[in-house]
Predict the structure of Gallate dioxygenase.
Amino acid sequence: MARIVGGIATSHTPTISFAQDAGKQNDPVWAPIFKGYEPVQDWLAETKPDVLFYIYNDHMTSFFIDHYSHFTLGVGDEYYSADEGGGPRAIPPIKGDPALAEHIAKGLVADEFDISTFQNKGLDHGCFSPLGLLLPHENGWPLKLIPFQVGVLQFPAPTMRRCYKLGQAIRRAIQHYPEDIKVAIAGTGGLSHQVHGERCGFNNTPWDMEFMERLEKDPEGLLDMTHAELAELGGLEGAEIVMWMIMRGALSKKVETTHKAYYLPSMCAIANMVIEERSDEKPEEMDAAYLKRINHQVAGVEKLDGTYPFTIGRGVKAFRLNNYLHSLVEPAHRKLFLDDPEKSFEQAGLTEEEKTLVRERDWRGLIHYGVIFFMLEKLGAVVGTSNLHIYAAMRGETLEDFQKTRNAQIMYSVAGTDKGKTDWDNKEPAK
Ligand SMILES: [Fe+2]
């Protein structure tokens, strides 16, 4: 079973990555930043976790207010640096761990944390700014990353108590993961700062010191603090320390801080901690009982012939093709697909197998491959095929035979105003 080796807390201000990218290691004003991270690097090099579960928040880069959520688990197989306006940082991509992420997702949902998931999104300074100082990466990163994005920028935001409980659920999931791997937990954000409004520039070092002390020794004494109380003491953006509570919740009750650093050169205190486990707290449930519980909702679905639940695993494996078909909602991509499908396949980097499935409108094959049905009906709308044609093809029947199984022989699709895409209506059905 997987083992949690300890936790890291760290600020994630872009000051950290700027210092690294600009090569400020020997500048006396910047050097304390690097010095403060050296013991964390040493701890990671000694403990050698296989996976870093990394709690951070995005800053309206890849997660915008057009669709904002509280808890978003990274399930992808690779993550890259986001472009925050001046081009992405020159930092290599890092591997994810889709299998462990899917297991954690199942555990969290079973524990009533209805998280969302993401892949193929750039990670901004909330992730990569401190990560670059935590780990060597010139020749590739030494471990896998599971990023966990927390929506702390729009109110209502998750509470301290909710975050702590979420951490406990993450701990359960990791401890019951049936692979013999080591996992470290990182919580990022803070410490005290405010970057907006007339109060910008607010800091409070005594509160930062108190918070770090209580995080180790009395985390549960902090759980009733409101966002307003956190903002009063640590600045509004400093309230992102709720993410440190997720990390703390994922550790055992008894821990010891073996490293602590604090430096306040400008707007935000740059702080970090290494918190090591000091008890071997085992989960309350037996492994088999936990695994049965998190798989309970879909247990038995495998007996249903012709039924393929769209799991995280399928979504990761078939992401490229699902993404290609989803892009048909964009008029420019749709036009390219209709005018020059081979060029559109090449641009999207589809494999030969994926190209063939689309070229041949192999509706059943697409489902078997891992494409979700709702991409099929989009493709149908683009090429002028009704939903009924697709249903019949998936069943291996003619349209007429399938229509006989319905109460009325109607036809429809999701096509809107594009010309000619519902030509099958009021005509003899095509074969
Ligand atoms: Fe932040």
Summary: The chain has a mean pLDDT of 96.
